[in-house]
Structure formats: C-alpha cells, structure tokens
Amino acid sequence: MRNLWKVGALSAVFGAVLSVGGCSDFEAAYEDCKGEGRCGPQANEDGGSDAGDAGSDAGDGGDGGDNTPPPCGDGGVDYPDLTGFDNDCDGIDGVADAGYFVDPVGGRDDGYDGTREKPFQTLTRALREIRDGGTGRSIVYLGTGTYNEPAPVVDLPVSLYGGYTWRGNGNAYWDRFKDGGGSTVFDGGTLAFTVRDVTDAGVLLEGLTIASADALTAGESSIALRVIRGSAVQLRRVIIEAGRGAPGENGAPGNPGPQGGAGLDGGSAVTFGSGRRGDGGSSICSTGDAGLGGIGGTGNNFQQGFDGGDGFPNTPGGAGGAAGVRTNTGPDLYNCVAEQGLDGG
C-alpha cells in the first residue's frame, strides 16, 4: 500500500513561513506541521490498497485530459525544484495547497478560484488574491504560455514558479518542465515586469522568460525586469530579454557661426580692347571760316591706327597714327594699353 501525504493543513503554515522567509523553508514548515499532529502518512479513506480507490488517487480531474498520475516519490516535503519531480505524490512539483495556480490559456480571472482545477488566467489576479485573500499563501505556480498582461508588479514577498503544463479541463495534474511543454513567458510591452518596495523579505522568480518589446516612442526605453527599492530578489533559470530602445528626438538647430574674415583683394583687370581714337586736330588757318581737322582714327590694338576722318571743309583726313608702344615690361603680355594715334590732318 502506498502512503499518501495529506497536505491540506499545510496551507497556513507554508504561507506564514513564506511571508517571513521569502523563498520558503519547506522543510521546517513540514516538520512543524508533523510535530503538531496535523500531517502524516495516511491510507486511502477506505483503508484498503491504492487499487481499490484508483479514481481518488488520480484526483478529481473529471473528464479533462490525461488522468494518469505523474511519476512521484515516496512522500515527504516536496519543494519546487529544477528537476520538476513530484516528491509527495500530490500531482505537482511542489505543495499544491500552499499556492495559487495560473494558466494563461485555460484559466479564468472571473469565476475561478486559483486552485489547480480552476486556475486564474493572469499573475496580476493571483497577486491580488495573495494580498487580499487572507489565506496566508504566497506561492504562485505558473502555467506555460505567453502572458500578455500589462506589466505585472510584485510588491509583496512571493515565490513564482514557472514551467508548469496544466492538463486542462479540471484536471488536477500539472507537469513541470515537460518535454515539449513550452515556457512561461511574460511579454507585456516595453516594460515587462516590475519588483518594487519589497525590503523586509525576498522574492523568488524561477523558470520564467521575461521579454520586453522594442520601444517606438522617441527616447523611450525597453525594460524587461525592473527592481525598485527591493532586496533579496532571487532569479533561478530565468531568461531576461530586453528589446531595443527608440532613437531620441532630433536636436535643436545650432547657434549662428561667427562672421567670416575679409576676403583677399581681387587681381588687376587686363585690357584687351583697342586704344581710344584721337581727337580731331584744330586748323592752323587764321581766317574765321577755318575748318577743323577730322577726328583721329581708332586705335588698332598694337597695329598702326586707322586713318583719321576728313577735316572741315573738305580737308582730307590724315593717315592713321603709328602703333602705340607697350608700356609694361613684365611677363604679362596682355596687360597693356595702346597709345593714342596721331591727330588726323
């Protein structure tokens, strides 16, 4: 005959220990319970063997899921561990009556009581029950799946254990770290999870994945796990994945720069055109009707000037003046001006 440890009376004891110790001294709580005569090995209610009451051994799972009991030990204290083994044969790794159960897929926040047959849907709901329910429980067993609830805030001593797979539909069995069972993932936005104001005791997070989304608002951060004014926060088998922060806003325009210095003087202009044609000569005649000489011919760059115009009245114009002489002697052969031609006759 297999002995079954009835752990219903352990609820208040475990709750008291957890609220003081933070991460649960299961062994001491169990010994206290046993010493007070509230816990011990008991046969099935009909006093017979397990075979005579196989239905009760499988729990009250009804018609939901697989009712085959998971492998288990020979009794004693069963604290959740990373092997996922059910040591006390109550159907889970851990003490079922010492905590609340949450399943993000099959659970309900309204109408369910957080037991393993009727789990809550969100961690936030379980934390509220721990805070306000008055049961003394401070453990939460978290089913696998993704929790998209807005960033949960843990502000009281509590132990959170992930990696449980509920068999569903009222079944009392929860397998832990089952092959293919998935992970317990919190993914609630750019701030995924917060622990704050827990300074008199500890918080334990085990078997969880906490991930934050990429930030979209300019200058916004992406924070997976934030701890504010907390101490003795323990993480075991926890994956933390922060997203990318958003780029900052564009900076303001800079101040105007100082005024630039004065530029260098420009170079001298180069003359390429012809020289100005000479003025007409005055007549040397003394008579009052003496005419004026014709206007001088236009200069022709460095060649002889053009012929002058006819004088008045009818005096033929003189020949063009001789070519002007280049006045500069430097290397710039183009920076020169022809001299004025001689006056016309």
TrEMBL record:
InterPro entries, A to Z: DUF1565, Pectin_lyas_fold, Pectin_lyase_fold/virulence
Low complexity bias spans: 244-253
Residue stretches of biased makeup (Gly residues): 257-266
Domain DUF1565: 106-173
Pfam families with a match to the protein in the record: DUF1565
Location of region: Disordered: 41-80, 244-285
Gene3D superfamilies xrefs: Single-stranded right-handed beta-helix, Pectin lyase-like
Coiled-coil boundaries: none
Name of the molecule in the record: DUF1565 domain-containing protein
Organism the protein comes from: Corallococcus carmarthensis
Source lineage: Bacteria, Pseudomonadati, Myxococcota, Myxococcia, Myxococcales
